[in-house]
Fold each of these.
Amino acid sequence: MLASRMTHVSDAVIIGAGIVGAAIAYRLTERGLHVRILDAADAPATGSTGRSAAGVRVQFASDLNVRLSLAGIEEYRTFEAVHGLPSGYRPQGYLFLVPEAAWPAHARAVEVQRAAGAPVEVLTPDAAQAHTPFDPAGVHAATYGPIDGVVDPHQVTTGYLRTARRVGATLHLRTRVERARHAAGTWRVEAVSEGRTETFEAPLVVNAAGAWAGRVAATAGLPLAVEPVRRMIFATGPVAAPHPYPLTVDVASGTYLRGEGERLLFGRSDPDQAPGFVEGIDWAWLDATLATALPRFPWMEAVGLDRGASWWGYYEVTPDHDAILGRHPDAEGWIDAAGFSGHGVQHAAMVGRLIAEEAVDGAAHTLDLAPLRHARFADPGRDGGETHIV
Ligand SMILES: Cc1cc2nc3c(=O)[nH]c(=O)nc-3n(C[C@H](O)[C@H](O)[C@H](O)COP(=O)(O)OP(=O)(O)OC[C@H]3O[C@@H](n4cnc5c(N)ncnc54)[C@H](O)[C@@H]3O)c2cc1C
């Protein structure tokens, strides 16, 4: 009696109720699967999803990443009609300020974006000032994505989960996966939920555990090259003249800012941040960030910081800064959807659809996932991965 009460059977177990797990749950239930979603946290979207800069952009260098974003933006644009909740999509744009040395590669990426049907404008530094004021020293040219912008990742996650649950998906919160074993075509996933062990049985497991995906794969004895890397976002207090500045990236330094309501958000990825589950804001990095932000955006000098509104979270990083998607080569019935390296919010929508195809149809087919599959790491001739990383 006790054993059966604690064993839950379904067609698929999804580990992680962030935006990626939620999008996959929605698409798998749409394809008729009974899905259980497990998350260690008290609420959905409390991992990286709830800590992102919420940006969506078509401005990537690889064709597949451009197409993932393009489809994602379209889904977020029409989200409310399907899920009954607005996605919060606001096309406030992305503006890249590019130095001369980086321009040839950046211009090639614009060709890739346009070939995929993504709208991108090339601007002179003068023309770019209309979007965000900046000191043009060393800026050779700029690119602007008019459909790029932001969404509300909490709301998107909630919308996907709400639709999935309406047609039978079950969400198990406070349920931490500790062990997974495969035998006779069935995965037995053991999780601790409020002090007791529960078992989830399914022929299919989807690992959507974000920065923890490497750890989760290890509970099944599987290798997965995803590591957590701490990132910070600093928030200003209210500014005198609030403006929805596009997410503006100074490519030379990696510093970025954007408008959010009456504030500005800004940041810069620390290239020396060691991987690991280190927590909290590194306030020393604020000085390093301002050291590059103020010369480029001198008007920020007049804006006060709001320490309490600033935050940190984990990028879920792979060796080539591209996600790892698809069936694990060493395990039947195990699919990974992780390692988005700081761009999972914008790719989640299309990833949900592709992973459902992988699960139900045998392989993803709307887009060719080859550049993001596990097998790429075994290819000595592979390229270095995505270069448009913020
Ligand atoms: C500062 C910052 C800025 C970012 N900016 C952007 C941006 O502008 N645009 C963009 O697209 N992306 C951005 N990202 C990246 C984006 O947030 C992530 O790529 C995305 O949220 C990944 O979603 P996910 O669902 O895979 O992971 P998560 O949201 O982290 O979800 C994983 C879930 O797995 C659960 N979990 C972990 N271990 C276990 C376990 N053992 N058992 C059960 N559950 C478990 C966690 O509790 C968590 O809820 C940013 C990230 C950060 C930190």
Note: The chain is about 25% helix and 25% strand.
Amino acid sequence: MFKNTAIFIITLFYTGITMSQSYEFGFNNYIEYQKGTLPIVLSFPHGGSMNPAKIPDRICSDPVYATDAYTIETAMKIKAALYVATGCYPHIIICHLDRAKLDCNRNINEGACGNAEAMTAWNEFHDFINTAQNTANQNFNNKTLFVDLHGHGNPVQRIELGYLLYDHELELSDEILNSDKYINFSSIKNLVNDNVNNFTLAQLLRGPEAFGTLLSKYDFPSVPSQQIPYPGTSSNYFSGGYITANHTSYASGVITDGFQMELNYNGIRDTEENRTKFANAFTKTIIKYLNTHFNLIWNPCSPLKATGETYFDIKVFPNPQKKGNSFFLESTTKSFSHFKIISISGMETDNGIISYDGELILKNSLKPGIYILVLINFNTGERYMTKLISE
Ligand SMILES: [Zn+2]
């Protein structure tokens, strides 16, 4: 089938480096691949809202139609937070088709129900994940983490991490879980066999440095974790689906480790503020996780050392700017030393030093328009980007 592929390039100039991101779309824009440069690959199969009439609603194999609400919006917050924290973007693969039309977390027969367009989209979704993982693994010496992100509707408001181990298996003792049998069942098989601290599977699932443990510390309760070692056998816990089983080291020939992540609704996906809060916590967690276990050389990306920082609470005023040549930062955000102002076409229009009382003095008045303000701490490498409007 003819493939409609469009590539768009967005380029941002910042701290002297040209950061670019390109997008690739599959047939009819059903599947989107936002190409990244981080060793992080994220997929979002169930947040889509496109409902083309020519693809009939699925009726084969007892289909589930539920949309994972606001997961694509959450994806964009995660992308922004990772960019601010590292100067690089993650790889993101999104299915824009409504789940009634296509379910990429099922095998192709059940997920596309024999429809040719849906099958094309299904193949593109999985091919994009393979491309993203291969690219990241080539650039980062096979140290890539994959997360398949969902939203769950279970009543207990906690994040469910699926490593392909069932709820009752997570109740097994550490000793039994650490046997080859369960290591080989898991989606982090390669990591268990080769990680910086020689942590066991049980430690990587629910030890002090497990992903769920780290995320729980930011007030996002997660299971499994040190805090909640197993979900119980009557909570409808999601242990991981087709995507996790086929794009992690559980599958033969796949190098990349990963897991499925099911986000609860309240406090994570429900408001823009909470999506931002979660994106910051996810960003700090994944950086800490990679630094702890993966022996990763981040270059050319550069994650912040100070993972206790919050990136998105910075207020600049007046904004919108009416007339004048200066802005002020809130008193809590004075750790930045320099600033740049970039037009939306990527041109740097101003730059300078931030004064001790948080004032940014511009060399030129801003013409009316939308700009990106980049704040930089030259000592720590920390940076922050926010939108500026001039009227
Ligand atoms: Zn889902």
Note: Residues 46, 68, 150 surround zinc ion (CB under 6 Å).
